[in-house]
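Long-time lurker. I teach an intro course on protein structure, and each term I like to show students one example going from raw sequence to a predicted 3D structure in token notation. This year I'd like something fresh instead of my usual example. Would anyone be willing to generate the tokens for the chain below so I can use it in lecture? Attribution to the forum is fine with me.
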Amino acid sequence: MTERKHKQPEIHRPEEEKAPELEADDELISPIRSKKSQPAGEAEAKEAEAPAGVPLEEFEALKKELEEAQAKAKEYFDGWQRERADFSNYKRRIDREQATLSQNITAEVIKKYLLVLDDLSRAMKMRPTEGAVSAWADGIDLIFRKLQNILEAEGIRRIPAEEEEFNPLRHEAISMEESKDHESGRVIEVLQDGYTLGDRVIRPARVRVAR
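-- Reply from a regular --
Happy to contribute to a lecture. Here you go:
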């Protein structure tokens, strides 16, 4: 009787797990470390390198020309800004001079009409109120008021002086007199009206002043 040999089943034992080697980790980490530790100067040098196919000398020459062109452009722009500012200042100065000249011409012309206005003003103080002459005086008064309106339309204003304190910038003292009815420095009487053109006095008021 033949003996049968039973093969015992092979028992596959799991292989022992090996711990990951540190060298692999070092290989993964090393590129990162090397990238972080790369000097900044080296990175800038790479950026400044000439493009492929362009000689370094030619690249440096072109770079220098670009820098010079940028410097000149900035110089021209700054010069343009200065010239523009100078022109604006010049234009404002010319406008002021023209306005002053126009005002001076107007003032000189107005002064001549003020003499006529003075005569009419003195005539109106002695105007007759009765008889046929009074109608004639009314016509003169109408002319007087019309001339006043024309001057006011041109910016001419009468300087108030009656009973006011004497102001040497707006009044011209003809005499200093004792007055019981007025305080010292007060205007007693206006002998000739004064006028302004805008903020400018074209003729001061002639007055008598209390001492």
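Some talking points for your students: Residues 1-9, 11-47 have pLDDT under 50 and may be disordered. Strands lie at 156-159, 171-177, 187-192, 194-197, 200-203, 205-210.
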